[in-house]
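JOB MANIFEST
job_type = single_chain_structure
chain_count = 1
residues = 392
[input]
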Amino acid sequence: MTILSSLTILSLEQATTLPFLTQRLARDGARVIRVEPPGRGDPNRYVGKKFLDEDGMASYFLPNNCGKQGITLNLADAEGRSILHSLISNLPVDIFASNNRTSSYNKLGIDYETLKAIRPDIIWLGITGFGPELDEAAYDPVLQARAGWMELTGEANGSPLVFGLPMVDLGASEHAYGAVMKALYKRAMTGEGSKIEISMFRSAVSWMASPLMLTAMGEKVTRRGNTHQFFAPASVFPTRDGYVYVAIGNDRQWEALTKLPGFESLADEKYQRNAGRIGDVENLNRRIGDCARAMATTTLMAALNNIGVPVAKVNTLNDVLDDPLLKKSFVSAQDHKSQTKAILPPLAEVAADGVTELSFPPRLGEHNESIYGEVLGLDHTKIAALKERGVI
């Protein structure tokens, strides 16, 4: 039995941030039912490579939606809203989640007060771009720009760059996960539900504690490419057959580096202390690059690991899939209809009490018959009529 196996989550979700969270909860054992509008559903269903010979199951949709059930429901229709409220009462639903804009809550019948009247102990979660104060649409890169992340990403003399992952989406999901855990604890202790509002913008800014404090104190913080503002050397260096990232964190590590065969020429007095290395970082990195370029990646990594200097090969994604620390921890989701297999990375917890295999991401409305039939007692004729009228 997994830790959250007694929980049911109804999630009106699309895009990335909320699906990433609810999949995390599914991996903890919770029953997650994603709700999509009838027709085309989540736009992400049609983004990316078409692995399956069918619409609505493109590659971009698959990673964040394993382990879930899927239903369709038209909440713009009064009957659809009534069905939603019946599901919340009859499933019963422990957590309701949405990443719709705040202006849609009342008209869709998903606002906290409405759902709390149905289930007083419900945990209600809304993830929006800016929280209830500002009802603007926002995608991850827009929030990276507004939160100052792009000012910190890129080469020193280059233009601002977006981060290589949708880290605002993912970070807001992690913050929401923590908030949900607190709400579950509160309910276990008091029997009370909770209303959780997650602002993706506030989430993004919360990671900026150091650069914002330093900026407020008058210290200039900006993008520096692969280098570090306070430590040197800390950068990517070429090898004979690839690239490594090397991070020297103290003067003892630097001294050890200068004693390695092939690096003795770096033992300049001006580099003995970190301040001297930071002051001449461009020349220093160029000299280190000349030394590293003469060595094979594996040889250099072994030498640096032996003297306690943190180093990593700059891996391709295929390298990560083959990493021995991870290889046995990946989670799979097999589609028995098409024999397609989705692979998910492990959770951060080394001894996580989670599932090792998930169900394949649901087709649009795949579980309409089972959920509306079993939970609400609707027969096939009634379900077909609801579909015909565009309610589900």
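[summary]
The chain has two domains: 8-207+328-388, 234-238+243-313.
Residues 77 and 360 are 30 Å apart (CA to CA).
exit_status = 0
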